[in-house]
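Summary for the steering committee. One of the milestones for this cycle was to obtain a three-dimensional model of the protein with adenosine monophosphate bound, which we needed before selecting residues for the alanine scan. The sequence and ligand used are listed below.
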Amino acid sequence: MRLILLGPPGAGKGTQASLLTARYSIPQLSTGDMLRAAVAQQTEVGKRAKAVMDAGQLVSDEIVNQIVSERIDAEDCRNGFILDGYPRTVPQAHALKDMLAQKGQPLDAVIELKVDENALVSRMENRVAETLANGGTVRSDDNVEAFRKRLAEYREKTAPLSEHYAKTGDLKQLNGMASVDEVSKAIEEILASK
Ligand code: AMP
């Protein structure tokens, strides 16, 4: 099963990816995680990516395309994979298509979790308040202003990708505001028809 999960921060992508990983024995491939690992290991790619990532910009398509291409050749991807954070631009989507065609591994689906941004902000505020009330600590970017910025950035970068995959016929959109179980069931139904 080869999937792309699209959805803004807080939409529940991580939760659904973990469920899919368990169900299909396929890894979740996050380009952000892979790049952070390359930076930590000070590889050539890591050295080139560090400054760009620190500035909050996108790493070049050439770099991310290469790390994804190498990663999906690994043994644990033989049953498939869930891409998270890649592709992030339309040129990356084209590169992915070529790469998968070359490897003879076509995509099964692109699943987008559609959400109500205002409801996501309230959800996030409640979660922070609850954590603090329980004596916990929260991340420095767990505040409404930073969260709205991340949502706006996602909207700007991802709207063209969603349109792209609608045109290719791969896009399936789901109501990401439904419960974890309901979303999971809806994803299962989409994948069962593959
Ligand atoms: P993330 O953990 O997905 O938020 O990614 C962290 C950072 O890694 C981003 O701000 C980018 O600098 C870089 N990055 C991750 N995925 C990509 C991608 N597909 N294309 C370009 N840069 C990426």
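Key point for the committee: The helical segments are 13-24, 31-40, 44-54, 61-71, 90-103, 117-133, 144-168, 180-192.
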